[in-house]
Input
Amino acid sequence: MNLENIGSPEGVMMLSIAFILDFLGFMLVFFAFAGVDDYGLLDILGTVSIGGWLLIKQFFNSSGTVSAKKKMRGVKFLVSAVTEFCPILGSIMPSWTILVFSELTS
Amino acid sequence: MSSFLAKILKNKKIVILGFLLLFFAELTIPILVQGQSMTAEQKAYAGLTTTGGTSQYNTNFVIGSKSVAVSDSCHYKTTGDAFYYGLIYGVGYMALTTVETVAGWATSMYKAAISTGTYAGYACDTCIENNKIIKEGWPKARDVANMGIVLGFVFIGITLTLRISGYEVKKLLPQLIIVALLINFSLVICGVFVDGANTMVTFFIEKQGGLTGDFPAKANGGFANILRAAWEGCKTTDMISAIVGNIFYDIIYGGVLFLYACLFFARHIALWILTVFSPIAFICGVFPFTQKISKMWWSNFLGWCIIGIPGAFCVYIADSVIGKLNSGASNSEAGSIIGYLIPAGFLLVGFFLSLAISATGSDSVVGAGKWVGGFALGAVSGAAAKGSGWAKRLTGGGNGSTGGTKTAPAGGSGPTGGRRPTGWGGGTPPVGGAGTMTPPPPGSGPGGRAASGRNAPTPTVSGEPKQSFAYRAGRATRNAYEKVTGVMPSTDTAYRAGRATRNAYEAAKAAPGKAYDTTIDVAKSGYNAAAEGVKSRYEGIKEAGGIAEGWAKSGYEATKEGIKSRYEGIKEAGGMVGSGAKSAGRWIKGKFERSETDIASNIKDEQKHAEVAAKSGMDVSQRPPTGGSTPTV
Output
């Protein structure tokens, strides 16, 4: 596991964003009984921000071929996004943080 | 009744829905009242006029932060119209107010982040006078680094004294001295990088209109016009799309500005922390076991320095695009939302681009720094080596940077070539009677070659051109091997000794009486002498083998050293790659290994022969004589 990228500017920023999104989602669970909901706003923000980051990262590291790593990256993003869009599971699971962490340490 | 109310109040959803309905009613009822139930005086008071039986509403239209004067003539014809437009108005009001508030917070954060330098106590990222964190932290880190310098000197001293290998102490010492000076200027060095990056960041931020970043406000102005046009024209679809677009726009801009605010805040804090630790990072760059920390520090420091530049540039581009795309845009066109969404896309992409560029950019800067540093160091050391080479040439010694002349080590004394056995061979025993047999004087027997390798001249390679040095060193090794094999004693001395012993024995058998005993004694002494000779010859062979091996090894080492010094000389001179030297080294090494194998097999053969000879000396009947005259008794 390569932990050097965690302390880089990219790592600090993206981990912060992912953590905030997951934390807000988790906090919303406690207010769900009062009818408070984000109507998928956090999920959209997460998909746009973290997906955009992965896309640009891929563009910068692109070698022109579809490698197994790229496929794995896409699969991991899809799994995280689908998990986040699930009503209760998405709020409880810190899937954005896990995705960013695994991407930074891979 | 009270229990029913309690039940209702316990159900939070019903309570919240009730509040929402009240809020909605508060928004819609006045419109209904104004449009349908007001008297002419009331209408005049409220800004409504009646033209041809239709209420005309002249007032400010307020949704969220948008307040524009409208002249309304189509919304209050019927109660249904009023309810419908009231619904749109109410929902739009709630949603837009919420997202605009959040976007406003993000805007305020962004403004604060890009103007952190103006706050008292943190006016400068790397100024000790104006930044409390630097003022408190950096001197302490510098003191710790100074202690590290002292420990470094102690470490180098111990390494030198105890001759601990593995550390290039000669390189460490000058580096440590330089770093001892640099850590006191680490703040200035950091300041150069940070101020350089900040100059560009400030340039782009000031270009966008003096640290404003009021994208939501700008866009809201545009949306207000769209809404007003839609409201006045009673275009419901345009109105809804404008409200939805505005909400979407505010979310995107609020989110992006929040990200930029986090980015610039984090940049300031990271630069402060990294600047505080800069003296320690500098000293970590000296020692091999801490260089990783130094590399990490430089990578992160440069990354945080340059991360602001693409970020500020993208904000500047987005600001310009908003101005150009929306100048003179139609107020009634919902499509003009695109004019605000494209800059939002710019901002979002710019943010991620900043992150990606910071990572690759810092690596590039570190790589460029290494290249420049390596080039400068190579040039300096190459010039120094050439200078010393010229100096040596002028004083008549060696050829400078090519490593000077190399002399192969002395090969030691050559093998003795086997001892000459004493008391064996051609002595003539007394014939008849009680004659006495005198053993021959030592050194008169056969065998025992002269030690041709003992005083062989040591192969030297000096004054040769540097290109052929490796080949000549290899040739010297080969010559040494050939000389060693040349002085190996041959096996026929052992056979001669055995033959003489056998003859003596047969002569003794043929001699009668005392002469027989005497002959036996002579034979015995001859046998002993032969055995000693064989033994000493065996030892000689062994010794010769050992010397040959040592000689070849030292020759190989000399070759290796010569090749190494030549390779380094070429490398220091800054030009050629020593692939030729490497291949020559490989060839010589292979040659040496083959020589070593040959010598070992030769020694084994000799040992075998010696053993066979020794055996034949003890039991001559097993080994028929190959000639020679029978001694007479």
